[in-house]
Amino acid sequence: MRKKIVAGNWKMNKTLQEGVALATELKNILAAEKPNCEVIIGTPFIHLATLSEMLKDSVIAVSAENCANKESGAYTGEVSAAMVKSTGAEYVILGHSERREYYNETPEILKEKVDLALANGLKVIFCIGESLAQREANEQEAVCKAELQGSVFHLTAEQWKNIVIAYEPIWAIGTGKTATAEQAEEIHAFIRKCVADVYGAQAADDTSILYGGSCKASNAPELFSKPDIDGGLIGGASLKAPDFKGIIDAWK
Ligand code: PEP
After folding, report:
1. How far is the CA of 185 from the centre of ligand 1 (A)?
2. Which residues are catalytic?
3. Which of 130, 197, 216, 233 is the most buried (most CB within 10 A)?
4. Which pLDDT score is estimated for 177?
């Protein structure tokens, strides 16, 4: 059975103290009212060790937002998958469109990162999604399939069990423009079919596919009601505990 998930992506927001305050607020809210889904918060590297320790007995799992495509050594400023794992974090977000666009992360680089993350015992939230121009040219399916083929479809069936897919149309990220539930469902079903073609129907059925792109408490219930949408990857609305909780409540 696939998991329902609501995952936050704080991006480059929150000092250590602000992050601790937000995580504490969320921990308390979710201790008082248990969520009906898995809850993950993706944070900058600086928060990982502190929050992993703070949240270890809570329902909240911690994720990094990136890791290096090298194992270790002379790569100044980089953080390896082994280092992320050593903080107690369980997940890493890879393939986010901002990393692809601003940091030139190619499918090959992402493939190396995915391999290292899995080899070091992390689970991967792998992001895919088309730009506005690609959507207007009706290329969304080809783009998503190519991104899967380029970085994750080489994995074994055993490795695949540690992959969560996040479909994030770039034109909907941080723009306030959400894909309609129908648009999202259509491509989620297509992505699941691509997974089935490689790993079989059961594995596809067990794969969590999240929607990301201006998801908020007001549109989450409709998005999450679709059969192939297993939750959300949330940017802006994960930065305030009540907003994030509103999305988590969409599973109630
Ligand atoms: C994201 O960047 O992963 C995202 C979904 O952002 P937002 O929710 O702000 O659109």
Report:
1. 18
2. 96, 168
3. 233
4. 84
